[in-house]
Design brief:
mainly alpha
């Protein structure tokens, strides 16, 4: 069930299921997911990039207890997770866009078949 260079991103599960897919709605969702990705990236890179604890912030006991290192390690871990999460959101958005391309191609092929039937050439 492929047409052109686009394979059905959902396999055969959707074929003949009676669902209608609107490529423009998929593209709008793609834009929203990319916007979410950008917000996650900004949070991890810019907002958390400014967050760091120093020995002066917690005093001698905090330094000896390892609070500075634990806190900064936690922030680094969160920044790493936000980067990976942003990457996943980007991949999801790209998949939505690919699905929209597939359904646009299907719509064009269906329109051509109907036009050919109408002309009596199909």
């Amino acid at each position: 069930m492929s047409d052109g260079n686009f394979a059905n991103p959902f396999g055969t599960a959707v074929a003949g299921s009676g669902f209608e897919v609107y490529p423009q709605a998929l593209r709008a969702a793609t834009d929203d997911v990319f916007a979410a990705r950008d917000k996650v990236l900004k949070f991890g890179q810019e907002d958390l990039g400014q967050v760091a604890l120093r020995g002066d912030d917690v005093g001698m006991l905090g330094v000896q207890a390892g609070v500075v290192e634990m806190f900064n390690d936690a922030i680094a871990h969160i920044r790493d997770k936000t980067g990976k999460g942003a990457m996943q959101l980007g991949q999801f958005a790209e998949a939505l866009d690919k699905a929209a391309d597939y359904y646009d191609t299907q719509d064009e092929a269906d329109f051509k078949r109907l036009r050919d039937l109408e002309k009596g050439t199909g």
